[in-house]
Amino acid sequence: MQILKFNNFNLTKQNACAIGKILADFKQIRELDLTRSGLNADYVKEIADGLMRAKQLEIIKVAHNQGMGKSVNSLIYNLAFSPKIRHIDLEAMVGTD
């Protein structure tokens, strides 16, 4: 498995916990797409640990998730632990609270 795609998906906290675990356990994942998935600040916390362990992650898309607000900062921080990251899509995230 190399791509996790949850775009246009209505995430729940359980989904977010599962995504975090998958990212931690399957270190070969290269792309995570959470575009328009209802990702919010609480869910970012659940996914964060997995992001820190996803050493092969190259692309993350979290565009059009209006509920993230300032948690975008913690998301970016956790991506600093992903040495291969080359593309982050945060479209339509600026100015949300």
User: How much helix is in the residues?
Assistant: 25-40%
The arrangement of helices and strands along the chain is EHEHEHE
Estimated radius of gyration: 12 Å
Quickly give the CATH architecture.
Answer: Alpha-Beta Horseshoe
Q: How far from one another are the termini?
A: 33 Å
Number of helical elements: 3
Could you characterize the architecture of this molecule?
The chain has 97 residues and is α/β, with parallel strands linked by helices. The chain has a single domain (3-89), classed as Ribonuclease Inhibitor (Leucine-rich repeat, LRR (right-handed beta-alpha superhelix)). Helix content is 36%, strand content 12%. It has helices at 13-25, 41-53, 71-79; strands at 3-5, 31-33, 59-61, 87-89. Strands 1-2-3-4 form a 4-stranded parallel β-sheet, with no helix packed on it. The longest helix has 13 residues, at 13-25.
Brief sketch in words of this structure:
The chain has helices at about 15-25, 40-55, 70-80; strands spanning about 5, 30-35, 60, 85-90. The protein has about 100 residues and is of the alpha/beta class.
